[in-house]
Design goal:
The complex is a heterodimer of chains A (about 290) and B (about 260).
Chain A: H1 2-35, E1 38-40, E2 44-46, H2 52-57, H3 60-92, H4 99-107, H5 114-125, H6 130-137, H7 151-176, H8 179-187, H9 192-203, H10 205-221, H11 223-230, H12 237-247, H13 251-279
Chain B: H1 3-27, H2 44-51, H3 53-86, H4 92-104, H5 107-121, H6 127-151, H7 155-163, H8 168-197, H9 200-205, H10 213-223, H11 228-252
Amino acid sequence: MKSSVGQFRFWAIGLASVWLTLFVFFPNLLVILTSFLTRDPQATVSLPINADSYVRTLDLLYLQVLWDSLRMSLLAMVFCLVVGYPFAMAIVSLPKRWQPVIVFLVILPFWTNSLVRTYAIQFILGNQGIINKALLGLGLIDKPLQLLYTQFAVILGLCYILLPFMVLPLYSALEKLDVRLHHAAKDLGAGPLSRFWHITVPLTSPGIVAGCLMVLLPAMGMFYISDLLGGAKNLLLGNVIKTQFLHTRDWPFGSAFSVILIVLLGFMLWLYFRASRFVSKQGGLNGSDF
Amino acid sequence: MAPIFRWGFMGLVLTLIYIPILVLVVNSFNASKYGIKWGGFTFKWYEKFWNNDGLMTAALNSLTVSIVAASVATVIGTLAAVALHRYQFKGKALLSSMVFVSMLTPEIVMAISLLIVFMALGIKLGFISLVIGHITFCLPFVIVAVYSRLKGFDMKMLEAARDLGASESSIFWKIILPLALPAIASGWLLSFTLSLDDVIVSAFVTGPGYEILPLKVYSMVRVGVSPEVNAISTILLVVSLVLVVISQLLLREDK
């Protein structure tokens, strides 16, 4: 009897632990290690250990790409927040039985192919796309607007694909908000705007940070969105990493760019835990859920 | 917010979310090649897809990878969820934070880290590497789905079973598994759709000899208009939508 308990336990804990150590923990360490190695035409990477790859990211050309990528991703994040926050507030204000339906409708596209949906946007924004045809048809413009292959198109595509990731954590943060606080503040004479700034925003700050994290980080990596909507000029960090790994085969340089993303993830997680501690209530996306 | 404004805003956002999907689906039945004008209803793009051997092979490969990856991820993930729920063990905090981190890691970082580890371990890029990669990103979703279902359980039932002499594995097979089955099934379906739709991880860990559908679609849409892409896209969209709706219904049952 004792041994059967032990055996089941052993497999239940062991399989996932080994898998995650071998294919998540260990690989991430290897990325950091690779970023300090030297490119080798024969063996892909080799010694000596140095920080050359990081020095090279400071090259003006790559700084420009990094900045463009960061700016597009940040704008997408801000736009998602500006749309997502009122959207999540609107969901919370619905009757309880309607809330899951709307949440489901927002998340549903997340489970479908995002490449295909990006392609659909390309279809709509193109010179022969619906928007241009409609505007031409109405006589508002003489020649098609260049919507596709612009930074605007990339930002729009990112928002479109990533909006659910913003709405979800915001919704679960807003749902936990104690309405009595609002009533109390109202009784004490606080206006709607002041209640929003001094109660709603601070108390949902973990949700805000979680949403921003879940939009910003994937946004920087989604190479196919910039590829299909931005053309050759408007690159995301993901395009640079992909080129370094699959075409130029400069793995240390590509890894250095990825380490930038890992550092950014660490920083945002730190922000998130700080915000959660500040709210001190259990947030939606929390490590202690396990 | 006034109710009309509220519903209007939500309606607008949801409409904008679904319009591109609708446009794609409608165009997959459009006889006009460039989709500029409605040229009449047709199935010919679906036929073209059906008769294209390269695409069909890629589709079959995709199905194989997704089924294998979803199944393995579901087994490992279910066991892990049970372990996290039932046992206290050394490294539990580490295991749960690895699950947490692997969910938040940007896909591109996961993709290159897997590529590097395959290289280090000498695993050839192709079917095996794809399956391992897909299992890795599906695993946390299964664990979370099953774990949150287990959290709603009445633990006394399990204690009673143990007091009456049930072994750990029969508790698992006779009590936990049947009760968690909807969540496990939903975890499998979600893993399957995630795997079927993945582009980023696959782009890095597939080999030249093993083509899968999303990467085929990617290379096709990069080159230019080819209407059979609309047909493939519609199929992929519909498959995912149906599976996700089923998985959600499974979770809603007997709550």
